[in-house]
Design goal:
Helix content: 40-55%
Number of helices: 15
Oligomer: single chain
Order of helices and strands: EHEHHEHEHHEEEEHHHHHHHHH
Strand order of the largest sheet: 1-8-5-4-2-3
Bound molecules: 5,6-dihydroxy-NADP, zinc ion
Radius of gyration: 20 Å
Largest sheet: 6 strands, parallel
Distance between the termini: 34 Å
Shape: globular
């Protein structure tokens, strides 16, 4: 039964959007009371683009003290977070400024938790206790994808056992986010496509809920999905198209700040949970991993959620309505999204990811997934270990 669910919508992040908005950085840092900042970044894209030097000089000119920690890798690691916690404590920083993509922002959030809370920060990601606060985090975003610049999530990988786990709590929502779409122009086409896929998936995970619906939320979600697909196609031909970069960047933030889930039952999230196990084991790019399994998950579940899949096919993927053959239309919608993924260079199987998991590896993935979700997850169809193994196998 679809009916509107109660919800809380909380998005405290101040978004400053557009060209050259980085010049507002010193004023924003002052507004949020920062006196000493830890600049956190990845493996060098912000060095090569000149953004890191720009941020440093803006802070220097404004007389704002700063320390630095680079080296965040995609699927960010716990060991660097430990290093960051020790550094932030030693330097007495009061805000962590992430300059980069989702991995950098997530690593900054984890450091923020570790500075404020006693004990091992991994406990929060292992869900054995709750955080009681987080050092303020802010972001200068360089990759439209995760929505971490406004979200309450962070995802971390523990090298011991290669466990990739997420922790959600409002403490870590960034104080402000500087979103200048021009910074995303240096992304390789593959990363742009991974980002677009992740943005689509954050809304799709919420959209394919069994219970809960709002006409307005559906309209926003469907508009966002169509906008991202249209502009992903533009960027394939014209990677420096500012307007397309801007549409996608804003969609990325709105897709994971809760807006496209208002009134739903919270969403499905099985693809994300299944992908996190793949990211933990093989270090695949998050968006690519999602594209590789989405079609298999959709085929496994669509009959139990036919209304939504039919609506998706007709309202988002442009399939002609045919109430007499709803299942066939739903399937066409699934195929159309897989076709789109291939069009932008995304994988739709393990094979496309250049992976050939053995039976043992598929079982291990399913086992780790079930452990992470506490047995089973999903909205219309509960996916436990057995079902997850079947879906992973379908994605070979
Ligand atoms: O490390 P550098 O040198 O900066 O290179 C990065 C990295 O290699 C590069 N890059 C970023 N901006 C660039 C650029 N290269 C050229 N030009 C630029 N402007 O892109 C590569 C990928 O970066 P990463 O930050 O890893 O990508 P993304 O933003 O997709 O983040 C992925 C991580 O976020 C998690 C994922 O699981 C994964 O660990 N997620 C976080 C979420 C959240 N916090 O809300 C939700 C998501 O569902 C997701 O799980
Ligand atoms: Zn995601």
């Amino acid at each position: 039964m679809l009916c509107m669910q109660n919800f809380t919508y909380y998005t405290p992040t101040k978004v400053v959007f557009g060209k050259e908005t980085v010049t507002q950085l010193p004023a924003l840092l002052r507004e949020f009371g920062a006196r000493k900042v830890l600049i956190h970044y990845g493996q060098g894209s912000v060095v090569r683009s000149g953004l890191l030097a720009r941020v440093r000089s803006l802070l220097d000119e404004a007389g704002l003290a700063h320390a630095e920690l680079g080296g965040v890798v995609p699927n960010p690691r716990l060991s660097l977070v430990y290093e960051g916690i020790a550094l932030a404590k030693r330097e007495g920083v009061d805000l962590i400024l992430a300059v980069g993509g989702g991995s950098v922002i997530d690593s900054a959030k984890a450091i923020g938790y570790g500075v404020v809370n006693e004990g091992d920060v991994w406990d929060f990601y292992a869900h054995t206790r709750e955080a009681k606060g987080c050092l303020p985090v802010a972001a200068v975003l360089t990759l439209s994808a995760t929505g971490s610049e406004m979200s309450n999530s962070s995802v971390l990988t523990k090298e011991d056992g290669w466990l990739k786990r997420g922790y959600n709590a409002d403490w870590c929502r960034p104080k402000f986010a500087i979103l200048d779409p021009t910074y995303t122009e240096t992304l390789p086409a593959y990363q742009t496509a991974c980002g677009c896929t992740d943005i689509l998936m954050h809304t799709l995970e919420r959209y394919f809920a069994k219970d809960g619906s709002m006409a307005l939320t559906d309209a926003i979600a469907e508009g966002l999905l169509r906008t991202v697909m249209a502009n992903a196609r533009v960027l394939q031909q014209d990677p420096k198209n500012y307007d397309a970069r801007a549409e996608i960047m804003w969609a990325g933030s709105l897709s994971h700040n809760g807006l496209t889930g208002c009134g739903s039952d919270g969403g499905d999230w099985v693809c994300h949970r299944m992908e996190h196990e793949m990211g933990g084991l093989w270090d695949v790019a998050h968006g690519a991993g999602l594209a590789a399994i989405w079609g298999s998950w959709a085929r496994f579940t669509y009959r139990e959620n036919l209304d939504r899949f039919y609506r998706f096919a007709t309202q988002v993927m442009g399939i002609a309505p045919n109430p007499a053959s709803r299942a066939a239309v739903a399937l066409e919608g699934i195929e159309a999204l897989e076709h789109f993924f291939r069009e932008i260079g995304m994988p739709t199987s393990f094979h496309d990811l250049n992976l050939a998991p053995t039976d043992e590896e598929l079982s291990l993935l399913a086992k780790k997934y079930a452990l992470a979700v506490g047995g089973a997850a999903g909205s219309a169809v509960k996916i436990g270990e057995t079902e997850a193994r079947a879906i992973y196998r379908m994605a070979l």
